[in-house]
Amino acid sequence: MEKIVSLCKRRGFVYPGSELYGGLNGTWDLGPLGSDLARNIKYEWWQSMVASREDVVGLNSSILHHTRVWEASGHIASFTDSLIECKKCHTRFREDQTPEKCNQCEGMEFTSPRQFNTMFKTHIGPVEESSSLLYLRPETAQGIFINYQNVLNSTRVNIPFGIAQVGKGFRNEITTGNFLFRVREFEMMELEFFIEPGTDKKWHEYWKENRLKWFINLGIRPENVKVVDLPKEDIAHYSKGTAELWYNWPFMGFGELEGIANRGDYDLTQHSKLSGRDLTYTDKSGNKYLPIVIEPSVGVGRAMLAFLVDAYTEAGDRIILKLHPKIAPFKVAVFPLLANKPDLVDKARAVYQHLKLELKIPTVWDDRGNIGKRYYAQDEIGTPWCVTVDFQTLSDATVTVRERDNAVQNRLPVSELDTYFTQKLK
Ligand code: GAP
């Protein structure tokens, strides 16, 4: 993990949050490459969950909701962790993660547990009083439930259908750690899939398989990810049954990557009760019911960490980030063999601009150092292909295309690069 954290900082994937002022625990900033990687992950998720389907629509709700939303959802009463404190130095721990000795002062005595609500509080308007209290959302899901009826009334969806949303969530975690794994501010990708009661088993199985395949198709090694059904005592207050995708993390072995919960009709029942609005669904045959909800939900940062860990490879003294081309920040790098030969540079710039501006393939230019160093620098950030313009290019209009994962170089006519990369990126 230290190697990955250090690579991420050195190459501009992830920086510690507020580092200039000593850091802010549980926050990380995505650098130029990290923001591209995250954007690609979100794009692939949206393609798979919304754009390629006929039964899912998107939503972008506000982050701030009426406090009654969190009352209804049960988060005010139940979104808590059990917290204990070291009696000597007052360091706080989650009860289920308490060490035998305090890891700050070696103290052995702890207070008895008390419940700590992990929603961040803020105030709306200029006066900080109880009536202006608001919470930052700990999940995007409630934005979907409170708009469920709006979506039904304004679109042509019929059950079974889903509403998907990607956006920030905030949790005042007692303990953060393991880099992007557990943080206090993170983006979530959530789908609430509304179904007829009695069909939940079928749809739960469907989403477990669908989500597992998504990770594997984007390059996660199948042996490093699995579906696990959680025992009843480990599931959230709203859930009737939760499965998780577990990834084989370097710091803990297999553990949660994504949750796939059966929320039953819990949320719609609660919102009906507290809002006084009838949220029952009437199907084409006139049957009325509150739909059941299956919810695949994953953090962008946690998914990104799994992709980074799985892709990280050492070959001798080289690092290769074997990211799937679809999520790699750059797909292609273009080099002139020598930076001080104007003929080579002009030709290479033309290839670079064609790929980047006309084909719109994320392409990066590099003319620093020798060619070997440029290859290594691209391997380290996961660029799948490097195109080199050399002296032969000037006479026969061919270039070398080097593959990241096996370092094999092919000679291709410049005119064939379009088809070559478009095919590869399909
Ligand atoms: N709406 C369902 C929900 O919020 P969750 O299991 O609490 O369920 C869903 O969170 C996913 O969000 C997790 O599987 C994980 O990928 C991510 N996640 C949760 N807490 C996180 C945290 N503190 N830091 C980073 N990611 C987190």
* Count of domain modules: 3
Bound molecules: glycyl-adenosine-5'-phosphate
Low-confidence stretches: none
CA radius of gyration is: 25 Å
Question: Would you identify the CATH architecture of the largest domain?
Answer: 2-Layer Sandwich
- Shape call: globular
CATH superfamily heading of the largest domain = Bira Bifunctional Protein, Domain 2
The main sheet orders its strands as: 3-9-10-16-13-12-11
Distance between the termini: 32 Å
Strand content: 25-35%
Share of residues in helices = 25-40%
Mean of residue pLDDT values: 96
Structural category = alpha+beta
By DSSP, the count of extended strands is 23
CATH class of the largest domain: Alpha Beta
* CATH topology title of the largest domain: BirA Bifunctional Protein, domain 2
Provide structural commentary.
It is a single chain. The mean pLDDT is 96. The strands form 7 sheets. Strands 3-9-10-16-13-12-11 form a 7-stranded mixed sheet. The longest helix has 20 residues, at 32-51. Strand 17 and strand 18 (318-321) form a beta hairpin. Helices cover 31% and strands 28% of the residues. The protein is α+β, with helices and mostly antiparallel strands. The two termini are 32 Å apart. It has 13 helices and 23 strands. It folds into 3 domains: 2-65 and 140-310, Bira Bifunctional Protein, Domain 2 (BirA Bifunctional Protein, domain 2), CATH 3.30.930; 80-117; 332-424, Anticodon-binding domain (Rossmann fold, 3-Layer(aba) Sandwich), CATH 3.40.50. The protein is globular. Helix 2 packs across helix 9 (300-311) and helix 3 packs across helix 8 (266-275). The site of glycyl-adenosine-5'-phosphate (GAP) has 18 residues, from strand 10, strand 13, strand 16 and helix 9.
